[in-house]
Amino acid sequence: MPARSARSGRRVRAHPGSTMSRVPLLAACLAAGPALLSPPTAAAQTPPAPAAPTPSPAARSADPAASAPPAAAGDAPVRTLGVVVVEGRRVPSSLPTQIPTTMESATRAEIDRSVNASDAEDALKYFPSLLVRKRYIGDYNHAILSSRASGTGNSARSAVYADGILLSNYLGNGVGGLSFPPRWGMVTPEEIERVDVMYGPFSAAYPGNSVGAVVDYVTRMPTRFEAHARVGLVVQPFELYGTKETYRAWQASAALGDRAGALSWWLNLSRSDSEGQPLTFATRLRSNGVAGSAGTPVTGAALDANNAGQPWFVVGAGTQYHTVQDHLKLKLALDLTPTLRASYLFGLWQNHADNTPASYLRDPSGQAVGSGPINIGGLAYTGGQALGGADFTVQREELRHAMHGLALKSSTRGPWDWEVSASAYDYGRDDKRASGATNTLPGALAGGPGTLADGAGTGWVSLAAKGVWRPDPARGAHVVEFGLQQDAYRLRYRTSTIAGNFLADPAGALANRVQGDTRLRSLWAQDAWAFAADWKAVLGLRAEQWEARDGRTDFSASSAIDHPARREDALSPKLALSWQWRPQTVLKASLGRAVRMPTVQELYGATTTTNAQFVNDPGLKPEQSWTGELSAEQDLGVGRLRVTGFAERTADAIYSQTLFDSAANRNVSRVQNVDRIRTTGLEVAANTQDWPWRGLDLQGSVTYADSIITRNTGFVTVPGDTVGKWQPNIPRWRATLVAGWRVDERWSATVGARYSGRQYRTLNNADVNGFTYQGVSRFFVVDTRVVFRLDRRWSVAGGIDNLNNDRYWNFHPYPQRSYALELRADL
Predict the structure, then answer these.
(1) Disordered: where is this region (predicted)?
(2) 414: Cα separation from own chain's centroid
(3) Torsion sign (Cα): 153, 156, 157, 162
(4) Cα–Cα distance between 627 and 647 in angstroms, integer?
């Protein structure tokens, strides 16, 4: 179906399935609308938004829902004057009605064809400038999202939503004493209908946490009866240091949905049983050994170098998770009137995880050695260097989290529309049991003393009201959006000692406790103004009031600090201007301020565990960033090309810096403000369909980022040692390339490649060796996937991730070559 030219309103021919008929890569105006659970949105524009394209035969064969009648189409956002306009009719979207910034999107059919998706975050694998630090299938505590100027230690600098409900965990940032990645497990790959990514803090509808990117998962909502089932298996042969094993992950899911009159419903169930590779390792610096014969003579230690290039022995493996996860999702939508819809969502995720460490060392009789003084090749490790419980921590975790969302929204497409919504995320059960420092192998596997960390009572609640005013719906010269929002976060973590059996006994005496509340109240407004035929401007402003209260840190049963309440106010202006320079070319400039408030954990979370310590700072300043973009987007007829220059200046950047204390044999994380960080860069993204021959789809991106610490009164070792250094976890170069071949209506094959250049993990860039435990390495990874549709209902797919078996690191080792196989039924 032809698309409408944004410049003249005339019809222009778009290639079927081309990016011109889907989601544009360039957006030109600021947006509005809180990212909360919402039914479909509607926006009046001049010229009218393009009608949805007729799916290509290949798309229809890969996605049975794509054959829905035209009246049910309009699922993907469309572009008018460089502005992405969200008009989700059949598929609800929580996005603002107009997106002011660079935007990328992937549909269910595209994800199914090209990605061996075992978790929701896999859908982001080939998006420009994005990286998720996923270590194994079902990684629930370290899978941090990284973007252009935000590394994999800064989870609070991005926003992830599912059906409008916040999945990003702003109780903390990164993976310090506690871990705060997005709650990816609340979404399964099978239920994803579309995933949209907005880059940068240019929407007044989002808080300062959106400075990196906003990810919105839109899940299935049926228009007729549907039934789906999937079973999958992933096999990973893994070899590193003294580990040589094969790990497996099994997954199964089922879904049902229907629409009867005014009521539609969707139910999704899934289970994942996953074995991950070892993630941490017990080590001893070679230089700490004393020449002599003391200690038990052992063999099996692997000689390597740490991230500073110092020789060390790797003597054992830890954090090798076996996880069993269950997921349930229920969605209901009721059309109260033709223009008023009520919707409800319930999600339940539970996880059982076992972490079983293992020693590589063997005594002269061949028995495993997991404790006591040892001697490696004539070097004795005794006293504080002897093996202990901190080297091989046994862990057992039981988690059960729930989320709820409720919304009431009008969609009149007239002068006024409105929405009220609420969502909640609750840590119903969050128990983490760990063996103690004096509890060593092999006895720790059967019990003994340890700790229990209990997070019950932790969670967050969001409330929002939003309005849209179109003074002249027929012309659409103005679209005024505004809203009021409150987000409240509650952290409650108590760690208790267990003197008897840490695997089964109830909590004992208090070891340490962290608690506190934060609340963010926001009022925002914007006007998207089409002031001329080829021009559109947006002025927006977000006013925020942040409070922190009830902060308390118990360092032990007899030592505690009650922290005073705090309050901060902030204004974040937004400005965007777009120009339809030529019929197929849009130019855009955007500027926005973002204020990222400290999280509860960063303020109050001083904690100590067997192998880690987290030191907080209750006086942290808010992080303030100014971000700008200049973009040009060209419709190529067979695809689309986008070039984006970006720059960010961040004051008082909040960083949790993790260093290894060899004397205490533990990781120590300290939170601090870094005075100034400057980032400039260029991003190029392109895609084509049916080019250079029919059936071939290409997409790729290259990102260059120069991110430097320009001022810092703090330091790691000596004053000034961080100034002029690279921002951690931001590589200079990133690139993706995906080639998909739709052989016919049954067969498709995809090869994808991802590259990331060298980077550092420490603020002073002292970690010069990235290819080791606690290092961050460059990587080049090739993935493959083949899908065969047996008939209109059954399909089988297989693929290989990390085909070239690149051994790469981000503190922990990433998965090695993995083989995936799945069988699906869609009725």
Answers:
(1) 1-20, 37-74
(2) 36
(3) positive
(4) 6
Q: Residue 769 CB: number of other CB atoms within 10 A?
A: 17
pLDDT band at 301 (very low <50, low <70, confident <90, very high): very high
pLDDT (mean) for 766-775: 96
Please give the residue that has the higher pLDDT: either 23 or 319: 319
Residue 194 and residue 347: Cα distance in Å, rounded? 18
CA angle 651, 655, 660 (to 5 degrees): 150
Cα 728 from chain centre: 17
C-alpha count within 13 angstroms, C-beta hemisphere, residue 781: 23
Secondary structure class of 155 (helix, strand, coil):
helix
Cα 406 to Cα 462: distance, rounded to the nearest angstrom: 11
pTM for the model stands at 0.88
Report pLDDT for 372.
96
DSSP H helical ranges for 40-107: 57-62
Sheet with 379-381: strands ordered across: 290-291, 379-381, 374-376, 296-298
What percentage of the chain reaches a pLDDT higher than 90? 79
In 499-622, DSSP assigns E strands to: 510-532, 535-556, 559-563, 566-582, 585-596, 607-608, 612-615
What three-state secondary structure class fits 747?
A: strand
φ, ψ for residue 811, nearest 5 deg: 65, -50
Cβ-proximal residues to 592 (8 Å cutoff; 6+ apart), any chain? 30, 200, 201, 202, 203, 572, 573, 574, 575, 626, 627, 628
Set out the domains of the chain in order of their start, with CATH numbers.
3-279+319-357+392-826 (2.40.170.20)
* Tokens matching residue 806: 């690149």
Q: What is the DSSP letter of 583?
A: T
Q: For residues 604 and 614, what is the distance between their CA atoms, to the nearest angstrom?
A: 10
251 contacts 235 by C-beta, under 8 angstroms:
no
595: Cα separation from own chain's centroid: 20
- Say how many Å lie between the first and final Cα of the chain, rounded: 27
CA dist 343 and 335 (Å) reads 9
The pair of three-digit structure tokens given for residue 90, joined into one six-digit string: 């059949």
Is the pLDDT assigned to residue 452 strictly greater than 60? yes
